[in-house]
Amino acid sequence: MSTVRSEIAAGFDVQKVREDFPVLKQTIHGMPLVYLDSAATAQKPFAVIDAIRKFHEVDCANIHRGVHELSQRSTAAYEETRSKARRFLNARFTNELIFVRGTTEGINLVSSSWGRHNVKTGDEIVISAMEHHSNIVPWQMLCEEQGAKLRVIPMNDRGELILEEYQKLLNPRTRMVAVTHVSNALGTINPVRQIIEMAHQAGALALIDGAQAAPHMKVDVQALDADFYAISGHKVVGPTGIGILYGKTALLNAMPPYQGGGDMIKTVTFEKTTYADLPYKFEAGTPNIAGGIGLGAAFDYLTHLGLDQIAAYEHELLLYGTEALLRIPGLRIIGTAREKAAVLSFVIEGIHPHDIGTVLDRQGIAVRTGHHCAQPVMDWFHVPATTRASLAFYNTTAEIDALTAGLKKVKEIFS
Ligand code: 7TS
Fold this sequence. Notes:
Elements: H1 2-10, H2 14-18, E1 27-28, E2 31-32, E3 34-35, H3 46-59, H4 69-89, E4 97-100, H5 103-118, E5 124-128, H6 137-146, E6 149-153, H7 163-169, E7 174-180, H8 192-201, E8 205-209, H9 221-224, E9 228-232, E10 243-247, H10 249-254, E11 265-268, E12 273-275, H11 289-305, H12 307-326, E13 331-333, E14 343-348, H13 353-362, E15 365-366, E16 368-370, H14 375-380, E17 386-390, H15 397-414
Helix pairs in contact: 1-12, 3-11, 4-11, 5-6, 12-15, 13-15
Bound molecules: ligand 7TS.
C-alpha cells in the first residue's frame, strides 16, 4: 500500500503545479516565500482567480431573480457550483448542499436550526478533545440555552481519540456527535466512519467538521453516512466567505430556517410566510456569488489534480518533514497520530513559538504560531502554544529544508 502511495507521489509534478499559484512567486524580506500555513487558508490557483474576475468583468448580476441575460448567467454559474459540490463530496442530491460562509457558519446553522428544535433539558451533545473552537462554542451555546450537557471524547498522548471512552459517553440522551475529520492543531485523521456508526447505534446524529479533510483527501459523505458535513471554500483553494454544509434531505427538510429574508421564501404576507424548498430555505439574502463561482473552479482544480494524488504526495512531504524536524535537538512534535495529515505542530524547548514565527518570517517562511483556535488541545498537551507548519500539495521538500535551516537559525539566536 505505501509503495503504491509513494509511486503515485513520485508521479506528482509539483513544479508544474506551482506555476498555477501566482502568490508563490514572490520574495518576503528578500527571501523566496515559503508558505507553510495552508491549514489557515490555502493559496489560490489562476483558475479560481480568473473565475472570480470573469464573473465581475462579464457576468455580474444578482442571482435567482432576473430574467435578464446576466442574471441568468450568474445564476447558472453559481448553481453549477452546487452540482460540483455534490460530486466533490459525493452527496446523493444537489439540494443537500447549502451555501454558507464557511465551516463555522455550517456548524452554527445546524446547532441553531436543528439544535433548538431537537435538544432538550438533560440531553447530551458529544464533541472531542481536539475540536477547533468553531465545533465547540456553538454546541456550548446550545447546551447553555437548552439545559443540555456537553461531553468530550478524550485523546491519548499521540493525539488520537480513545474510542473505548467515546463508547462509554454514548447513551439514550445523546442527540448529536460533532467531531472533526482532521485536526487542524495535530493533524490527526479521525476514524469518522466508525465514529458515525457508533453515534447512529446510540440513536444520535453525527456532524463532521470537514474543514481540514476536504483539501487533503477524497470525502464521500454517503460512504461515511454523515448526517451533516461542513467545509470551507478557502481551505480547498477557493475564496474566503463561502463554504458548503451538506445535510441529509430528511433532516434538512425537518429543520426550520436559520435566517429569514429574501430568497428563502415562497410567499410572504404580514400574517404568514411560507418557506422555499431545499436548499433555498437556508439561503437568506444575496450570497457571496463571486465566491460561489470561485469555489466551483476550486472543486474542478482539485478534482483535476486528483485527491488521491494530492493525499499521496502530501503524505511523502509529511514523512520527510517529520524526519527532518526530529533531527533538531529540543524539538518536540505535538500530534503523532498513526493516521495523520500533513500538519507539523511543534515546540522547541526554551523558545516561545511567537519568537520562532517571527524569526522564520524574516527568512520568508510563513507558519502559524499560537493556539490555532484549539485552546483545549494546548491545555491537554500542557503547552501555551505551538508553531505549526501546515503543508499543501504545492509545497516541496526544498521548502521543508528551508524550514529546518530557519529553525537552526532560531536556535542560534535564542540559545
Ligand atoms: N474547523 C477546523 C478543523 C478548522 O481548522 C477551522 C479553521 C475551522 C473549523 C473554521 O473554519 P472557517 O473557515 O469557518 O474559519 N482553522 C484555522 C486554522 O487552523 N488556522 O486558521 C484557521
